Amino acid sequence: MDGTAIDYDLHGLAGVRVVGATARDAAAVDRQLGPIRGPLRRDPDIVVRFVDHLDVEGPLRLLGVDDAGFTDDAFLVLRARHKARARVLIPLDRIGRRCEIVCERGLPAVPLLIATLNLTVLARGALPLHASAFFQDGRGVVVTGWSKGGKTEAVLAFVARGARFVGDEWVYVAPDGATVYGIPEPLRLWDWHLRQVPDLRARVGRGERARLAALRGAAAAARGRRIASLLAGQLHVDVAPETLFPPGAVALTAPFNRLFLLVSWQHRDTAARPVDPGEVAARMAFSLQHERAPLTRAYEQFRFAFPGRSNPVLDSACERERELLEQVMIDKVAHAVDHPYPVDLETLFEVMRPLC
Predict the structure, then answer these.
(1) pLDDT of 244-263, one tens digit each?
(2) Those residues with Cβ within 8 angstroms of residue 272's Cβ, 6 or more apart along the chain or in another chain
(3) What's the pLDDT tens digit per position in 82-132?
(4) Which of 58, 168, 285, 298 is the most buried (most CB within 10 A)?
């Protein structure tokens, strides 16, 4: 175990300090936050403390099937990524303000870490947006929409043709709407992505490529049986941006000049049309609410355990997001793009490029 604290600075919008992490624990946090380690010149907003054993006083009452639990004064999350067993103390009445999360060591990921980070950024006046972003010909482009709507595909299409990567999955918009910041989380790439962009495929590790080939063969052999869809659902790899893209192709900061709303549809064509940025803001209010659902479920469990304890930042999050969405999008040139899924990346580029 390394007793040295590890700091992460999200563009000055929020700071995270990790304490007591083993190399494995630190690597798990790195996978979630990306390479944004840097010294904090202020107190951290979030402290993540790793311990060998998390002691709580009194009996632990369970919520769900070992989903969460509570004592007379503590709330614990008992599941991590991929339903792995966990034991994590999260003060849900304090997230969005300065708080400390205490984890037992060996987790694949810290539960609700990104959601906690997002609520902290929101409380400090910036907008966490479920979106991707890239820097193209001197303009910053933000691509948003519902989950699986084409955000990652747009980033891949443009970065493969010379744009610079800013963010995928989550980006953060300054309160004045002028600047967008990325968080360099790993990108989830599906097998069909890699077939369309051979240069990206070459940057995926040999072992991962072999795993994809084996899964592809097994899925083809099982065609028509239920297991085929289960195997197809595993045909992906998670790759960090700095590994996936060439040197100099990762920016993480850009102006916010263009806005796209991407939605998949049941047609073969890919089509773009102008859209009122206010409409994009109204739609994305519900997308953000949907993305916060795991945190909301945990908060509901917390309120069941402690009816007298609440979190005003979380309670007002929807209203604050609507205000910020309208504020940062109101003056943007915006287009909606409808496309089939899976989408042809070259076609997506050709449709979007003239509008950037």
Answers:
(1) 999 899 999 999 999 999 99
(2) 335, 336, 337, 338, 351, 352, 355
(3) 788 899 999 999 999 999 999 999 999 999 999 999 999 999 999 999 999
(4) 168
The answer for residues whose C-beta is within 8 angstroms of residue 6's C-beta and 6 or more apart is 17, 18, 19, 21, 26, 29, 37
Q: 286: helix, coil or strand?
A: helix
Among 168, 184, 167, CA closest to 33: 184
* Domain of 146, in residue numbers: 127-186+244-291+323-355
When divided into structural domains, the chain yields a total of: 3
φ/ψ (deg, to 5) at 154: -65, -45
CATH number at 330 reads 3.90.228.20
Per-residue pLDDT tens over the stretch 18-35: 999 999 999 999 999 988
Residue 353 scores a pLDDT above 60: yes
Please tell me the number of Cα atoms within 13 Å of 220 on its side-chain side: 6
Handedness of CA 22, 24, 28, 31 (dihedral sign): positive
Give the separation between CA 39 and CA 11, rounded to whole angstroms. Answer: 12
- CB within 8 A of 240, min separation 6: which ones? 31, 34, 35, 184, 186, 187
